[in-house]
Structures are given as structure tokens and as C-alpha cells.
From TrEMBL:
<dbReference type="GO" id="GO:0005525">
    <property type="term" value="F:GTP binding"/>
</dbReference>
<keyword id="KW-0547">Nucleotide-binding</keyword>
<dbReference type="InterPro" id="IPR030228">
    <property type="entry name" value="Gpn3"/>
</dbReference>
<dbReference type="GO" id="GO:0003924">
    <property type="term" value="F:GTPase activity"/>
</dbReference>
<comment type="subunit">
    <text>Binds to RNA polymerase II (RNAPII).</text>
</comment>
<keyword id="KW-0378">Hydrolase</keyword>
<comment type="function">
    <text>Small GTPase required for proper nuclear import of RNA polymerase II and III (RNAPII and RNAPIII). May act at an RNAP assembly step prior to nuclear import.</text>
</comment>
<dbReference type="InterPro" id="IPR004130">
    <property type="entry name" value="Gpn"/>
</dbReference>
<dbReference type="InterPro" id="IPR027417">
    <property type="entry name" value="P-loop_NTPase"/>
</dbReference>
<protein>
    <recommendedName>
        <fullName>GPN-loop GTPase 3</fullName>
    </recommendedName>
</protein>
<comment type="similarity">
    <text>Belongs to the GPN-loop GTPase family.</text>
</comment>
<dbReference type="Pfam" id="PF03029">
    <property type="entry name" value="ATP_bind_1"/>
</dbReference>
<keyword id="KW-0342">GTP-binding</keyword>
Length: 269
């Protein structure tokens, strides 16, 4: 049985930075982890790249030959990958042992996990190869500044979860940039009634019915549970890793239960 994280979420939310911090964290613990680059447009890596999607075809080629811009080129590239996916992945995965832990650093185009079948097929392939996979969805704390942004972030995450049908964890990234804890505290474990009343306050009165069903939807799928992550703190990385571990039955870290979020306390950085 192998283990895998599929690191997904909007562009710039901190996925690749997390991958390199996670790599360093595991290296310190002498724990084996392999980071895979699934972003054809990526150029610089702060982690050793175990597998690299750019081996198949580069984004430059697609843009040049077919006249796509960067975003269209990426979508085309991912669909093209689908055709070669089984062969490439099967070949690459042969290099890994049964209990290896892989982390897939995905591109930030939202279409990839909302309506392109590629990632879903990718996950099915990993499942067939006996990997337990967790979708790790990234939300940038800098954008979760009010209830409307919180709900829209949750909805995007929900759409990824429904599309991928994977155990799912939401990470609130860049906690080091949060100077006022109160700004995000309201959204870490929020009361549905609090969310609804905030939303009703923000929105015009005729949105009340929609607000209610949006919050119900978000709450029903447990989307409201965000894991705050401060990459400066080993304990924060460890906590996120343990939560993800619980989802994929990776037992080793299950005993780390204390959520480490205290913007004022950097002692254990
Ligand atoms: N302060 C701070 N900055 C961060 C953190 N994580 C990422 N950043 C910055 O945010 C920017 C985007 O980070 P990336 O890790 O490249 O984001 P990404 O999600 O991989 O982006 P795409 O690959 O474009 O989808 C970079 O300038 C990072 O330095 C964090 O935890 N704290
Ligand atoms: Mg990236």
C-alpha cells in the first residue's frame, strides 16, 4: 500500500512552497517522501523532483506549435497527458516501493480539478496501483478576509472534492502573514449560524434563501474545517501531516493532535 497527497488549489496559494517545506521537514525526521511535479509550466524547484511531468512535453512546445496561450496550453497539455498517462505513470511508479509516500504538486488552474477529467483519471490510476490518496486543498489566508470569500473558497474546494471523490483536507496557508488572529479565527471552526448571519449581513436581502442553502451545503460536507498552516513552525507542518495521515490511514503521526496556531508565538519555528 502506497500513500499520496494530491496538492491542489488556486494559483499562488502556496502549494509548491509547502512541498519544499514538507520535503525539508521529512528530511530532518529522516522520513522518506517523494515530491512529484505535475505542473508543466514550473521552472524552479526547491525540492528534489522525483517525477516530472515536463518529461512528456513542455508547455513551450504546446504554445508554440498549437498557438495556445499559457492557460489554454496547460489545459490542452493535461488532456494530452491523459492519453499517455497510464504508460508514463505505470513506468514511473515502478521505481517506488509499496509503502512509499508521494506528494503531487499540481498546477493552480482551477479547471483541472473542476471539469477536466485528467486529474480524476490520474487518481483512479493511483488507486489501481494501491495508493491511498488524499486531496489536499489550498486556501490562502490572505484571501479569507470575509465571509463571502470564505464561502466561495469552500465552494471551489467542494467542487474539487466532488470531482475527485477523494478523502479531502483543507489547508489555510500563509498563516505567518496573519498579524491579527481574529481575522481568520472566525473561519477556523465557525458556527453555521454565525456564518449565515454574517452572510445575510453582507448580501442584499433577496439572497437570504441562497445564503442558507450555501451554508448548509458547506457545513454538510464538513468544508468548514480548515487546518491553519504556518510553515515556519515544524509543529504546524507536523499537525497538517498527521491530519492528512489520518485520511489515508498513514498511522505513524496519528498521535499529534494539538492544532498549532498562535500567530504571536514563534518559539518553535
Ligand atoms: N509568507 C508566506 N509566503 C508564502 C507561503 N507559501 C507561499 N508563499 C509565497 O506565495 C507565492 C506563491 O507560492 P507558490 O508556492 O509558488 O504557490 P503555488 O500554489 O505553487 O502556485 P502555482 O504553482 O502558480 O499554482 C510565492 O511568492 C511564495 O513565496 C507562506 O507560507 N508564507
Ligand atoms: Mg506551484
Amino acid at each position: 500500500m502506497g500513500y499520496a497527497q494530491l496538492v491542489i488549489g488556486p494559483a499562488g496559494s502556496g502549494k509548491s512552497t509547502y512541498c519544499s517545506s514538507l520535503y525539508q521537514h521529512c528530511e530532518t525526521l529522516e522520513r522518506s517522501i517523494h515530491i512529484v511535479n505535475l505542473d508543466p509550466a514550473a521552472e524552479n524547484f526547491n525540492y528534489p523532483v522525483a517525477m516530472d511531468i515536463r518529461e512528456l512535453i513542455s508547455l513551450d512546445d504546446v504554445m508554440e506549435e498549437l498557438g495556445f496561450g499559457p492557460n489554454g496550453g496547460l489545459s490542452y497539455r493535461m488532456e494530452h497527458l491523459e492519453e499517455n498517462l497510464d504508460e508514463w505513470l505505470a513506468e514511473e511508479l515502478d521505481n517506488y516501493l509499496d509503502d512509499d509516500y508521494l506528494v503531487f504538486d499540481c498546477p493552480g488552474q482551477i479547471e483541472l480539478f473542476s471539469h477536466v477529467a485528467m486529474l480524476r483519471n490520474f487518481v483512479e490510476h493511483l488507486n489501481r496501483k494501491n495508493f491511498n490518496v488524499c486531496g489536499v486543498y489550498w486556501l490562502d489566508s490572505q484571501f479569507i478576509t470575509d465571509v463571502t470569500k470564505f464561502v466561495s473558497g469552500c465552494m471551489a474546494s467542494l467542487s474539487a472534492m466532488v470531482q475527485l471523490e477523494l478523502p479531502h483536507v483543507n489547508i489555510l496557508s500563509k498563516m505567518d502573514l496573519v498579524t491579527n488572529k481574529r481575522d481568520v479565527e472566525n473561519y477556523l471552526d465557525p458556527e453555521p449560524r454565525f456564518l449565515l448571519s454574517e452572510l445575510n449581513e453582507w448580501m442584499a436581502p433577496w439572497f437570504k434563501k441562497l445564503n442558507k442553502s450555501s451554508i448548509e451545503e458547506v457545513v454538510e460536507y464538513s468544508m468548514v474545517s480548515l487546518i491553519p498552516l504556518d510553515l515556519r513552525k515544524e509543529s504546524s507542518i507536523q499537525y497538517a501531516l498527521a491530519q492528512i495521515g489520518n485520511c489515508i490511514q498513514y498511522g505513524e503521526d496519528a498521535d499529534v493532535k494539538i492544532r498549532d496556531f498562535d500567530a504571536d508565538n514563534d518559539d518553535d519555528a
